[in-house]
Each structure stands twice: as C-alpha cells, then as structure tokens.
Amino acid sequence: MAPNYVMIVALITFICFSLSFGDDAMLPTNNYLIAKPNCNESCGDVNIPFPFGITPDCALRNQFLVICNYSFHPPQPFLGNSRIEITSISLAGQLKVLQFISRDCYRAGISTDNNQPFIVLPSLLTVNNTANSFIAVGCDTYAIVQGYYTKFGTKIEYLPYITGCMSMCNSIDDVGHDTCSGVGCCKTSIPKGARNVTITLSSYYNYNDTDMKNDLSCSYAFVVDQANFSFSKTYLSSLQKAEKLPLVLDWAIGEETCEVAKINSTTYGCKSKNSDCQDNSNGYRCSCMQGYDGNPYLKDGCQDINECVDRKPDYRCVKNAICNNTDGSYTCTCHPDFSGDGYTECNRDNPQRKIQNIYLVIGVTIGVALMVFIIFGWSYTAFQRRRMLIMKKKFFQENGGLVLLQRLKVGEEGSSNTNTVNIFTAEELQRATNDFDKDRVVGQGGYGTVYKGYLKDNCIVAIKKSKVIDRNQIEQFINEVLVLSQINHRNVVKLLGCCLETEVPLLVYEFISNGTLSEHLHDKLKASALSLDIRLRVAAETAGLLSYLHSAAYPPIIHRDIKSVNILLDKSYTAKVSDFGASRLVPANQTELSTLVQGTLGYLDPEYLQTSQLTEKSDVYSFGVVLVELLTGRKALCFQRPEEERSLAQYFISSVEKGHLFDILDDNIVCDEGNAGQLKNVAVIAQRCLNVKGDDRPTMKEVAAELEAGSKLKHSWAQIDQQSEEIESLLPGFGYEYSEHSIHVDSITNHATIPFPGGR
C-alpha cells in the first residue's frame, strides 16, 4: 500500500503545481513602462518610448520630440517639425523612417520633373552607414549625395562629405535583375555619422541617346535601408508611383562617452539602477542588464524578467526541476522526492540513495570540521597570497591589461574571427624559463630579452621579457598582441599569449629553432648552407606575407620594420616574420598615414624619412634591402666598410648601374649560365624596390608574383587571394626582435590626415 500512497501524494502535488503554473504561466506577465507617466506610449501603430515623446514634457529634449499627425488614419508620427515619417523606434538605438525619393524625368529630351530631397537631422541622430546605401536607378543617370558627418574623437568635428555614382543603359532590356553595378542601377556607401543628406540627380544626354527618348523616362536616387530594397529592372518604371522609401537612423542619448557622462548624475541618461551604459560611434546608449527588461532611460524602467514564466531558449532547468525566480536571475532545484542539481538531472530517489545521503552528511560534517582546522592553520599563508594577488592586479592594470581586455572585447563584438589571446600566469612562465635563467636567453634587442621556455605540456616557446619602460610604451605592447593574435599565416611568428601580472609585460610566441635570417647571412659557416634556391624561397615567402598584409588583410597592415633580424627561420628554412610592434593599420579609403618616423637605419624608406608619410611602399623599400642582403651576404649598414660601401642599398644600385652585379654577389651563391638570368631578374626586382620615389616602386603583390614566377616555386602565400583571412580591430603594440639598432622616435600617436574629395 505504501508505494500506492506515495504515488497518490505525488500525483496530487503535480496537479496542484500544474494549476499554479499552468497555461497562464507560459504567457508574458510583465507590462514594462516605456514612456514617462501620463504620456502617450504610441502614435497610431508606432510605439513612442522615452527619451522620445509626443509633447515637450514627455520627451527628454527637443531632438527626441515626435509630432503625432492625427489627420492620417491611423495617426502617423513625424520627427519634430520635419516631414520625416517614423515607422518604428527601437531602444537599441535605431529609428526607422520613410524618406522622399529624388527623381529626374524627361520626355523627348525635355525635363518634366526634377526634385532634390534632403534630410537634416538634429544632434544625436545620424544616418546608419551599414544598414543603408545610396542607390541611383536610371539609364542616363548620375547622382551625387553630399552633406556633413560627425567625427568623434578628443573633440567633436563636423566635416563635409560628397560621393555618388552613375548608371547608363540603352534600354530596359539591357538591365539585369538583382544587379546594381552601373547598368540601370548603381550604388555606393555613405560615411559613418552622416547628419544631413542632400541628393543631386541629373542626366548626361536627357535620355536622347537611349531607346526610351520618346517615352517618359526617369532617373531616381535615394538613401535606402538595404534590408527592405532589392533592385529589379521593373523599378525603372514602377518607381514613378513611389514617393518614399525606408531609411534607418541611429540615435544616442548623449554625445559624450559613458565615462564622461557618469560624472554628472543629473544629466546621465541611464536612469534605471539595473541598466548598463555602452559607448558607440556617435555617443553613448543605455540597456537593461542581463535578467532585466524594459526602458533603461526611466527610473525603475528595467524590471526583473521572470525566467520561470517567460522561458527563453537558454532556460536551464531540467524536467522534474522547480524553477525559483530571483532578482535578475533564477535557480533550479529538484522536487523533494528527486535527487540532482536541477540543472543537469533530477532522478527519483530510492532507499539505497537515502542511505548514501546519510553517509554523505556524516562525511560532509567531518570534512567541514577538518576544513575549519586547515583554514585556521593556513590563515597566514592566505594573507600572503592575498598580498601577492594585489600586486599582480596592480601590475595587470599598469601593463595595460584592462585596455587589452576592453579592445579584445570590442574586436569580438565586431568580428567573426575566433582567434583569442591566452593569458598566462607569472608562475607558469617562471617554471617555463627556470625562473628566467640566463642560460635560457636566446636573444636580446632594443625592447627586451627573449628566453626559451618549456610549458607544462612540453611545448617549446619563446618568451619575451621587456625592459623596464615608461608607461607610454604600453600602447606598443597592446598593438603587437592584437595584431599577432588576429594574423593566421604560416609565415608569421604565431603569438600564443601574454602575461600581464609581472612588473614588465611578457609575450609568449611559438619557438623558431633556427635563429634569424641575419645570423645565417652574416655567419660564414651558416651562410654556406644557404643555397640560391633557399635564399629565393625565403624572399618569396617574405614577399608573400607582405603581399597578404597589404592586399588581403582588412584593414591592411604596414609592418614598418622589415629587416633580416625580424625574419626567423625554422629547421626547414621557412621564413617567419616577427616584430609587429611598429605596425600600423591603414584605415579604409586611405593609402598613406602621417606618422612620426620609426624604423631601422639601413632599411628605412628615404621618402618616408623625409616626408613622414607612411605607405605600403615603405615596406617595399625595406624588403628590397633584405633582398639585396640575400644576394650579397652584406649587412644593410656597416661603418667598417669604405664610405661608398657603407649603405648597402646605395652600393648595390651603383654596382648594378656599372654592370658589376656579379662582383658583389655572396661567394656562397654559385653563378653559372643556368642561373645568371635568374640572378639578373632578382637584381632588377631589388633595384625597382629601392627606387627613391615610392610611386616608382612595385607593390608587394607584384614583387611576390615575380619572385614566384622567376623561381618556379609554389608557396601557400600564392593562395592568399582565394583564402583571404579577415583581420579587424587591431591596435598599436609591442615589438619582438633579437638584435639590430632601431630608430624609435616615438610611439606613434598622430593619426592620419584624411584628404577631402573636392568638386563633383
């Protein structure tokens, strides 16, 4: 009877639980406040959340005022006193609107209709440059979009922009479906932070040179939400009936950063205590913390989500578990008749399990008593460990740890790249290097000392310990960590991680066992092992890597310190390029950067040295010097040689011009009729790379292709254009070098001067 009784009790309990948490429990029960008290929450079918409002008292400020026009049915909201019709407002920071189409129409060569719509947005509102595109439709069309955009930095600037495209075709039959590439349709992007948009639309020949000249023929231009617009050839006629198209705007609660905004609690926009602040490109916005939902701009606007009722896809309570809602979260426990943690399992108990539970309670009691005794004995040790942890935290912050983590987090949010940086502890690296034993030193340079280390999984690594530096060089350290963590290429020294809890920062790389190219070229015994084929293969692999950095990586990367010391060789003489501490990322639509000069004498681009304008051709010049080193076996700069031979680049060019190429080649290179032509071709490539004017030098992509063709080698870098690996959000960093004396005038802090396109 006992089992039946237990089953009846369990059944009654289950029925009661089901009645308490039945169908109503599956419906959302929270009605979150989205507008200020006594303010309308909608205009027609559109919700109007605060900071927006239909009256000045209901809006945070004038920029967020919405005029509800009740002459429409249903009523329609407009942004302020403008003609910009609002279709939706998102607390995530987007405003969807409808904007007028620009049109330019002709019949028999005579203009019948032409308008130039424009948008002027208040501060805190900008046109979204990723969701929208500027599109022109027509067969005799050129369209221009221009205005001003907001540039945020140490100060806020309002700068002009102008761009456009043209579309030509003879007839509608020439136009393809779903293609917008200049035949019947063209498109281009708009700059980030555009505050106003003015569209100018015109025709080259008034449609007289098309088959449509006797019909009403129109051109159209507009900035449109790409998600709601897919081009079709029918638009050449059907757009005559359209007046407006959807457009996406971005909004922010304030133009300053979160850190600055929080200083003044009165004007700080994130009013709910359960809200977070996030910086974005045009200011800052607010959102509810995880486990809360609602309006973060209202006091008490973010309310707890009852995860037990409003179950999300990540709901974790298993079957037979009881969900208990808590403030901002929830817990899962098993029913009294079940055992388990509620998250992974809930199993029905049996007598044997109850006996086991008794033993468990006894064991836990004994264990707790023993633990109290041990904790008392270890109190002093715990104090010492706490002191050590405080020191590690201090060093972590001083070495840029918080900045590094923040920038890594930003990179992860804006990129699909999954490469991460391992954070090693100081104890791990002390064990790996035998407490940084001098016998483990494998190289020293301007930035620090490199040790050979063995991790606990017997992996051999190179650990770079920087010298004591001022904190202005932390930006260089961060740059190399971020650059190398995102580059995945066989000819780059792979960064495995870093350690930030020591007095000076540490970088951990893969260990390249065969030393630097410089050591092999300038050591007689090692140089004898470097055949012409090996030297050309090293040159080709290095050129391929630089071609990848310049042409395939996004954004492109300029290494800025290419030299034989920074090219390592493994046992099979595969080239591995290191030291990205001076590297710079090239912003979109730029070909040069204005910087303070940094590099190594003998390899430094003379044009860059004179103008401070850093371009990809600066790497080409440095590579040319390395290529000459491979051919001659001489150092790039040597003051022990006669004056005319001190600069290897100048001496090489002079020798080639005099026809003395074969007199200066390395004695270890066998020159015969079979390879004489090949050596001349390589010398010509090096000579072109060493042109004083950057415009006269080839690109690294051209150099890589010529070296591959000349040596008939097949390398993995030749496939880069087909397997482009995307690189994003990289920042200035910290170098990796074994020797050589480098020029480090400054950690580069001056950013690019962006030229503004003039005229139409």
From TrEMBL:
Pfam families: EGF_3 (PF12947), GUB_WAK_bind (PF13947), PK_Tyr_Ser-Thr (PF07714). One of its GO terms (molecular function) is protein serine/threonine kinase activity. ATP binds at K465. GO terms for biological process: cell surface receptor signaling pathway. InterPro entries: EGF (IPR000742), EGF-like_Ca-bd_dom (IPR001881), EGF-type_Asp/Asn_hydroxyl_site (IPR000152), EGF_Ca-bd_CS (IPR018097), Kinase-like_dom_sf (IPR011009), NELL2-like_EGF (IPR024731), Prot_kinase_dom (IPR000719), Protein_kinase_ATP_BS (IPR017441). Serine/threonine-protein kinase that may function as a signaling receptor of extracellular matrix component. Binding to pectin may have significance in the control of cell expansion, morphogenesis and development. This is ATP binding protein.
